[in-house]
Hints:
This protein is mainly beta.
Amino acid sequence: MESTPAGSWRRNLAFVGANHGLALHPVDANGKQLPGEAASCFASFWMAEWSRWGTGNALLVATLQGWRSYGSNEFFAATLAAELTRYFPEAARFPLDGISHTQDEFDVELDLERGFRATGRKAELELGGILDRRPFTQPDFQLGPNAAALSNVYLPCSSGRLAEFGVEWPGAPSVYPGPRGPSSSGYMAVAESWVM
């Protein structure tokens, strides 16, 4: 951060684009979420129109067995994991001790009426069943010892799927009521910016 003449801190734009996330929770044979069960994994798909770390797409997958990234730029993916994604509430139970990377290219479909799909050669992420569309801002999103200003348009989703190397993760997003409308552990976040 740069100091202003008055001695206060001025934040700088760090990211402009979109970020879609999916935390999958265990379900029973009928597809109903098992109460009290923590998420088995969290996936975060970043689409950077501009960022201080580069542009393009990256898929991050956090599990208790470790973190993995997919995309064409390993540095970009690893930096998004270390600087932002590891501090998301959905990622809190998955410590980031390192990240393995797989080169991949994604075909991306984004429709604010229907949902999102990123199809790679090695991994896929899909979100659908949009429940709401509303602006979201958090001026002090905690990133470890630092904070950032986050703003986006938040679209909670009722369905989602994640697959790696042709194997689909079991589970479903957790949908719950919130003070401003429905929320979900599966979501699309567009027109997103981070100021750090």
